[in-house]
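Hey Z.,

So I finally got round to the cobalt (II) ion thing we talked about over coffee. Here's the setup:
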Amino acid sequence: MANFKVSRVETTPFEGQKPGTSGLRKKVKVFIQPHYLQNFVQATFNALGADRVEGATLVVSGDGRYYSKDAIQIITKMAAANGVRRVWIGQNGLLSTPAVSAVVRERVGADGSKATGAFILTASHNPGGPHEDFGIKYNMENGGPAPEGITNKIYENTTTIKEYLIAEGLPDVDISTTGVSSFEGPKGKFDVDVFDSTSDYLKLLKYECFSYVQKQMSFCFQSIFDFPAIQKLLSSPKFSFCYDALHGVAGVHAKRIFVEELGANESSLVNCVPKEDFGGGHPDPNLTYAKELVARMGLSKTHSEPNPPEFGAAADGDGDRNMVLGKRFFVTPSDSVAIIAANAVQAIPYFSGGLKGVARSMPTSAALDIVAKHLKLKFFEVPTGWKFFGNLMDAGMCSICGEESFGTGSDHIREKDGIWAVLAWLSILAYKNKDNLGEGNLVSVEDIVCQHWAIYGRHYYTRYDYENVNADGAKDLMAHLVKLQSSIDEVNKLIKGIRSDVSNVVHADEFEYKDPVDGSVSKHQGIRYLFEDGSRLVFRLSGTGSEGATIRLYIEQYEKDSSKIGRDSQEALAPLVEVALKLSKMQEYTSRSAPTVIT
Ligand code: VG1
Ligand code: CO
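And the result:
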């Protein structure tokens, strides 16, 4: 048994340690400055207060990006010094963001302990490596991101911090081998428990039934997916599958879940070995950055693929996002959540008793709204960022939710969940094809989406991102758009001068949200222009970048006429895009003639 002392280290505040949409994200060179990470971690402990820190059980893990291993050792030593009772670390420090949430909610330690919170080390879809981004965020006892009340407090603390506590004499822990190491400090015992990264997460996802034939009874444990049904689909020679983790942490879970549990061929996995720099790529699952998958699925403009798989998916660095593709077919994330919600009760055992409600972030298309109306479900529209869904779920008001930014999930945890979304799609495919895996034609991803549009109508949707533009220019553009909102007549005159075939704006505002559970109000959550025919233009500044500003422009148009739902989406949206760019004076304010990424 080793012993450690607590040492108090004097420090001074760093500017800009304000958590954004999802934690604090900065360049690695900023994070590795002496005391930088330590200040933020101590500010978090101070924001939580001694009651929630002393004796706590904290999960510390992440997506394995550059600097994670050092950060884990630092946070472990600071936790010990602050009186935390035990730290839980996924093997090699690897846990996807949804796996962390699952571990916080479900894992029980060998001594019966339960986690009380988590530090997640990730900058999610931002690139990694010595010259790229690192990030950290804190999740609460419900497994969800800290609410704004806490993140504001953390930020305040970072502006006044004078000292932090760190254990002296505590050796670096070996995070590559599972097992518990125990230490003794001035306040008593401190344990470090390194555990298998996937077991608890898998246990939550797998729906298991045990039949007691003699007594003619069967018990089903409350879990989520029908694994045997998915297994049958994956083993059918008619079906083929491809999963690209973009060298993020999802690869670890994917191998275990898709290959070892569900019997997918190992060759279905692409880029599933986590790398500190994501292989030099941008671990953001969209049509621009998930190049290899896009080519394999027959969607590349420069490469022709003779026989793409039936179903493909990609994840981001920390495994909470998903992109869903069919053979030569892209499913927009807004459609994906609507289609999952429409089919959940039939196809996914966890939802067989019905849905409590559904929710989407404001810029996400209204495809989910239409499903909610048809199925008479409670429906919520929240600001961007997963933290807003947590309250609804804790209050039993929401089962399925999603964001246009490739985030989909449910109340099984309190984060979006990339692998969950893939299993949800595999479940729908398995359900739709349960009678034709032998004879008959396979119902494809494209068939499912087109059938959905035929029933509910189609929301043409696109997002333009202008990454790393001049921050002042971005601010001026937003101010210009807010100012325009004071006269709708003026806006409509401008629009008619740009395109006469675009309908009238009937309402324009900055989105504001009052949480129906705790009554808290979040203002300035995006600038909206709503049109008479249901079309929308939304402008937001990103809260996850680490340099300059990123402007997001969201464009949506609803089409109910079934003879018009098969158009190319960029072509269908061209008039609205033109209006958006000219109305906002995008080129003038950003000096950019084209966006960095179109999704
Ligand atoms: C982006 C997305 C948002 C998402 C957030 C975190 O935020 O738009 O929908 O919740 O990233 O996702 P912003 O503020 O840059 O638009 V992750 O996977 O990066 O944690
Ligand atoms: Co992410």
